[in-house]
């Protein structure tokens, strides 16, 4: 497929894309899901596809668009239907991985009133969609006019009801991360610095901040992830 244009989209323009979800009830707090299906097309008109806002265009997500964030799951927060602010946070990312058919993640639902309500709605199947909030960094347009998202920064995930992409699914709800294969990280794979202000807000709410976020790398002062399974 021939590429005709390259677009470096402004990184501060937040884009939202919603996916269908198949729910698997369970009693745990960790929710496994496919965040972004690769190669599936939708029609959008948000002005981020080489055409003015309001003009429809086709979009698809290219393999690897979030791969640079594989070791930064802790920076991804979960809300319900794009509710803004710290009060709207109902979960946090604990693991991210890329596969041939899409980008996958595991999120941990918080033990807060809002987190409990969201988890109950997930288990009951009331929330039928998963929406990603991301900043598109690099996009390509093919000769047939399809805009391919090549690189993007994943910011948040929103549990919601109305799907657009059909390929994202909740794979299950589990109790913990005991069955995860340990991941050994090299120096080059250290995550980007954690938002200290956000960590302080989480602590003020009485929530536990993962231990990896409290440990600073001796050379850089940035958080050092523990070797083994994610928190």
Produce a short descriptive summary.
The protein is mainly beta.
Itemize the secondary structure elements and their pairings.
Blueprint: E1 3-7, E2 14-20, E3 30-37, E4 41-44, E5 57-61, E6 77-80, E7 91-98, E8 102-109, H1 113-124, E9 129-142, E10 147-160, E11 170-174, H2 196-204
Give a verbal description of the structure.
This protein is mainly β and 231 residues long. The chain has one domain (3-185). 9% of the residues lie in helices and 35% in strands. The protein is globular and about 50 Å long.
Q: Can you tag this structure with a few keywords?
A:
231 residues, mainly beta, 11-stranded mixed β-sheet, 2 helices, 11 strands, disordered C terminus
The chain-level mean pLDDT equals 74
Which H/E pattern describes the elements? EEEEEEEEHEEEH
Proportion of residues in helical segments: under 10%
Rg (CA only):
18 Å
User: What's the number of domains?
Assistant: 1
Strand content: 35-45%
- By DSSP (H or I, 4+ residues per run), the number of helices equals 2
Largest sheet: 11 strands, mixed
